[in-house]
Amino acid sequence: MRKVIMGNHSLSYGAMLSRAQVIAAYPITPQTQVVELLSEMCADKKLDAKFIKVESEHSAMAACLGASLAGSRTFTATSAQGLTLMHELLHWGSGGRMPVVMGNINRAMAPGWSIWSDQNDSLSQRDTGWMQFYCASNQEVLDTVIQAFKVSEKLMIPSMVILDAFTLSHTYEVVDIPDQEKVDEFLPSFDPPIKLTSDDPRAFGGLTSSEHYFELRYKLQKDMEKAPALIEKTGKEYQDLVGRYLGAVEKYRCDDAELILVTSGTMGYTAKVAVDELRKEGIKLGNLRIKAFRPFPFEIVQNTLKKAAKVAVVDRNISYGYHGIFYQEVKSALGGSDSGPGVFGFITGLGGRDITPSSFKEIAQYALKKDKPEENIVWIGVKR
Amino acid sequence: MKKKKTMKFSIPEEEFMNPGHLACQGCGATLAMRYVLKGVGGRTALSIPACCWSVIDGPFPYSSLDVSIFHCAFETAAASASGLKAGLEMRGDTETTVIAWAGDGGTVDIGIQALSGAAERNEDILYVCYDNEAYMNTGIQRSSSTPYGAWTTTTPVKHFKNRPKKDIGAIMVAHEIPYVATASIGYPEDLVKKAKKAKDIQGTRFLHIYAPCPSGWKSRPEDTIRLSRMVVQNGIFPLYEVENGDKYKMNIKPREKKPIDEYIRLQGRFRHLTEKDIEQMQKEVDKKWERLLKKCEASNK
Ligand SMILES: Cc1ncc(C[n+]2csc(CCOP(=O)(O)OP(=O)(O)O)c2C)c(N)n1
Ligand SMILES: [Mg+2]
């Protein structure tokens, strides 16, 4: 069924089709429509789930973790202040191997209060052990929720499905809503072999000495390392059933490109427009949109970028005291070879400032003009 | 021939707590757990936030309890229990009693937001606060449940705690939840009875248990039970229950309310107090006792 829906409702439909059993969430702009529609779906019995109307995001995540530990499929959604309030519990979710799936709407962190998009909220959760998927369309949001449950439950590692404030959360697009039977076939019900029950009493997460803790974290990383192949495999399975492939990246005209833009989220969509326009002018431009930030698809990134002469990483975020976060990741993925491309780092669009095709033209022109990177941050669109 | 007399147990004999736990000598929190589980039984799951009990249970991969435990973040006992309950029910398990098991700090301080939220939603959980009147896990710092006059490492004798203990019972009663009760490990029959009663009530139940900590109170381990009885007899920690926000009932009414002096003198944490300080404390105890009696009387009218 095709329907015109907003990005936030794509998250709700994704959770509904995945048959989430417990939802605990707290409202925050620009996420509210996610939970409003889910409340309705629960009230109308379109979704057989318990909706816990908690008093904070902190309790939302705590409740999700409890429900997940008890063996129920669990969903929540938040943004910015809400996500960062959850921080301690994000570590709990991955360390405790609770495969919650959470939608996060990328919104700039206060102060000053901002409800507009940038990625510092989710990227500052980088090392919490959650998988992170940055989406570029409402269709991708819906499909990725379903895929995230599959990958998360297989690995027992939680996932975040991430979309930009307003440019995706409140933008209406045509979305194909897959048949429930097909989703059921793709995503069987959740039944983890180890869960909290009173039939088989166990203690989860107690005092862990240095005799054991290290191995638990080693196993978490080893399972995370299985994620790239699993994303690929489930992406193909989804394609066979529903007709859409879901990968860790989207490559656009990269094969013969001399300069490749590296983008994420909705700006990765805008970048394609700039690629087409500049190609008409004879510039061999490509775009690599990174969807899976964790696990970082370094092999694909390496193989895609190493053929280009130059790479321009565009960050809608900043790690203060260093530079853009994707820039750091890409440099590290390409590190160790002197013959590799010159990697330029750009920061733009903080706090929701527009990123347009001309932003990418400016970026491309800068990178083409310079022989090699001269500074860690090239600012695009900042008033100085 | 005369029939041999057998001793009759006044609380269930079945144990859900095993030897090998890590508690200190004379630990009241340990008895609190043992008695509550006797009352509630084995079909139980606990959420335990950071507190002494996250240590007492024993190190991974061991546990001294025969019930399931979710060791959760310090401030999340009530929210974690809400999620556990929902998760179990969605799997078809409506039988298991879910208990949020927290210390006083995890309840009256850092966990009060989540607790208030769960109580307002009337989550079907039993919340137990074992009250040793300070943060003991981290080495005896004040909590808002620390009584007036007490020494802790953050309220040194020159600056002893100069504010009264937060009345968490009254706060919970104000949420109009179906059941709020106090208990003391010095009165096991009353405690077990309340745990059993709470188990069979739907909605949020709150049980506040007095549990001495010899290491933190500078009391003798062998005085734990004595203190747990005295505190009821002198009216400092009355044993009462409140149903649906307004029906008060005093469960153990001392025949004659004892002065607090001896109770105070048994604990090193109060050693610095002068006669005048203790007199002042006695006045406060009397005032609160009268207030509670009035509420109980009003409920009986
Ligand atoms: C967010 C957070 N802050 C601080 C701590 C450190 N901490 C662990 S237990 C504890 C005190 C617990 O006190 P209480 O709840 O009274 O339980 P008790 O230790 O007395 O049994 C503190 C401060 C923590 N684990 N988490
Ligand atoms: Mg305490």
Report on this structure.
The complex is a heterodimer of chains A (384) and B (301). Chain A is an alpha/beta fold. Chain A folds into 2 domains: 2-242, 3-Layer(aba) Sandwich (Rossmann fold), CATH 3.40.50; 249-379, Rossmann fold (3-Layer(aba) Sandwich), CATH 3.40.50. Helices cover 40% and strands 19% of the residues of chain A. Chain A has 13 helices and 16 strands. In chain A, strand 14, helix 12 (325-334) and strand 15 (342-348) form a beta-alpha-beta unit. Chain B is α/β, with parallel strands linked by helices and 301 residues long. Chain B has one domain (28-299): Thiamin diphosphate (ThDP)-binding fold, Pyr/PP domains (Rossmann fold). In chain B, helix 1 packs across helix 7 and helix 3 (77-90) crosses helix 5. Chain B is globular and about 60 Å long. The termini of chain B are far apart. The relative contact order of chain B is 0.13. At the A-B interface, helix 3, helix 5 and strand 9 of A face strand 1, strand 2, helix 3 and helix 5 of B. Strand 9 (203-204) of chain A pairs parallel with strand 2 (68-71) of chain B, so a sheet runs across the interface. The complex binds thiamine diphosphate (TPP) and magnesium ion.
